[in-house]
Amino acid sequence: MCNALDNQFELEKQLHEQYAINNNANVGSFVSFVVALLALFGFFGYSFVYSSNEFSVNGKLIKDGIMTLDVFFLFSIIVIGMLFFLSLISLQLGYSNRSNQIIIDRIRDRYFEKNKKIIFGNGYSPIGKTWCNFVQDYFNMFYWLFLAGQVLVIFFAIFKSIQNICIPKAEWSWCWGIFVIFIFLIQLTAIFFSICFRSRYFVKYCSAFEDKIAKKMIEESCCLTKSKFCNKL
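The chain above was modelled as a monomer; its predicted structure follows.
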């Protein structure tokens, strides 16, 4: 009996230490994400304010300290690419934490059959999450912020394009038209892959449970209904 209590105490100690380590790492990630978000939007805001509504003429990209419209579009690609990269990092970190939570939850089921709810509570259960919230904690919040940032970049790019079209006698050639369409395709592709990667991680999350539970979780998630990722289970 004493050995059982000693083993349970040692396990509780290890879980507590691991929780503290993970929490400290999460705090560092939170600060890094906030700094990256502020830096990217500061950079994009500067390029939006200090860029004209006209494309470059004769290869002159800057005139009187004001960037041309094509430079702004190139900057928008850089920003949306960084936001896409950060969304993948937040997905990976959030899913990794959720995977660890699933493993710890199984350990709790094995060693804390009677006192599991008393010690850990119902809020720490990793089961039953949907496509929208299976990523853990504030990593999920940052994912949606990064995705919203990508949408915001496209919105301002469209706004700049409309301003250029409305300029009387603006030089809108077929070459610039192809350039703008190409830029928009890249931006939309980044958003598309952000959603696709989230769907793939959700399938991996569901596959950690029994087949019947996993299929039910996917069917109940409106964002993955009739999705090609469901066939992987």
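Strands lie at 62-63, 66-67.
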